[in-house]
Write a structure and sequence with these properties.
It is an enzyme of class 3 (hydrolase). This protein has 306 residues and is of the alpha/beta class. The chain is built from 8 helices and 13 strands. The strands form 3 sheets. Strands 5-6-7-3-8-9 form a 6-stranded mixed β-sheet, sandwiched between helices. A 4-stranded antiparallel β-sheet has the order 11-12-10-13. Strands 2-1-4 form a 3-stranded antiparallel β-sheet, with helices on one face. The relative contact order is 0.13. Bound molecules: adenosine-5'-triphosphate. Adenosine-5'-triphosphate binds next to helix 1.
Length: 306
């Protein structure tokens, strides 16, 4: 499956929760997604699970997918096994096979005694076992787990850890979010972080990367536009978290690490109404002044944009 230029905002004027997400979801892989509260992890997982659609961009090549949402709809009028049979049929299984697999997963999770209990009467932990079982019984090619371990007892967490490993061993892909940084520690094939509306690889987002970006080359963008046209102006959601200062003739000067300048330019140019870019200038590194000057030192690059 592939995400190309995917963005998601809630409401036509809402702030962008995700922007410009390009992602190849590999086959046979365990993928961890991290990020602070409210950064957009669940939003990304809903897009990956296919239960929400991007506001912009495209998702192609969707495999057979199952999803454990962050919140389970407990008010549905089913017993646990009735619900699992129903969901199994939605996943394309014949009814008796869906019931067999559902019952088996309830047994594995130590919840067989609640097979005939109505969903509304289940404890939170047992509801979560049912939520996880409905996804596992489908044996999907892509399994999306949004904090699926939360509320499970220790034994059930181990069963889910094993089930995830089995899915990947069978050639599936599991994408998960979990608040415990030790969850499946060391097993993930890829790690991503949602930050400032962007999806970054673990390497791009680590403290070392942040420090390198901050200490590395900076770019000064001089632009003209209506402050109100940038929904995220002045918030960390603006790519690269630029330093913003008034410039000459009513312009605004935005300084960002060079690694984020393209993303910031895109944000300015796609704002409504769009900003006009006056100039983009590489800022010399602060320690450059301490180095002996040479005649062939590169001059700061200054490039007015069309
Ligand atoms: N259905 C919705 N309607 C409006 N805004 C939403 C909706 N769902 C999420 N948001 C907003 O999108 C942003 C990202 O939310 P999301 O739930 O994706 O973050 P998260 O990283 O999963 O957070 P948490 O770690 O707290 O679960 C938040 O500002 C949230 O308020």
């Amino acid at each position: 499956m592939r995400l190309d230029g995917v963005g998601r905002r809630y409401g036509v004027r809402g702030p962008w929760v995700l922007r410009d997400v390009d992602l190849d979801v590999p086959a046979r892989a365990l993928v961890r997604v991290e990020g602070t509260n409210g950064s957009g992890k669940s939003t990304l997982l809903r897009l990956l699970a296919g239960i929400d659609r991007p506001s912009t961009g495209r998702i192609t090549g969707r495999p057979r997918t199952a999803y454990v949402p962050e919140r389970f709809p407990v008010s549905l009028p089913f017993t646990a096994v009735g619900y699992l049979t129903h969901l199994g049929r939605i996943h394309g299984l014949p009814g008796p096979e869906a019931t067999r697999r559902g019952t088996e997963w309830l047994e594995r999770f130590g919840a067989a005694g609640h097979a005939r209990t109505r969903l509304a009467e289940l404890s939170k932990g047992t509801s979560q076992k049912v939520a996880v079982a409905q996804a596992l019984l489908a044996e999907p090619d892509l399994l999306v787990l949004d904090e699926a371990w939360t509320g499970l007892d220790g034994g059930a967490r181990e069963v889910l850890d094993r089930a995830v490993a089995e899915r990947v061993a069978d050639g599936g892909t599991v994408v998960f979010v979990d608040h415990d940084p030790q969850r499946l520690a060391g097993a993930a094939d890829a790690r991503y972080r949602v930050a400032d509306g962007r999806l970054l690889t673990h390497e791009e987002s680590g403290p070392a990367a942040a420090a390198t970006a901050a200490a590395g080359p900076q770019v000064l963008i001089e632009a003209e536009g209506a402050a109100g046209s940038l929904p995220d102006a002045g918030t960390p959601q603006l790519p690269g978290g630029p330093e913003i200062a008034p410039g000459p003739d009513g312009t605004t000067r935005l300084t960002v690490p060079a690694a984020h300048s393209d993303a910031l330019l895109r944000a300015l140019l796609t704002a409504r109404p769009p900003w006009h870019i006056r100039s983009v200038t590489a800022v010399p590194l602060p320690h450059a002044a301490a180095l002996p000057a040479t005649d062939d030192s590169p001059a700061p690059h200054e490039a007015p944009l069309p």
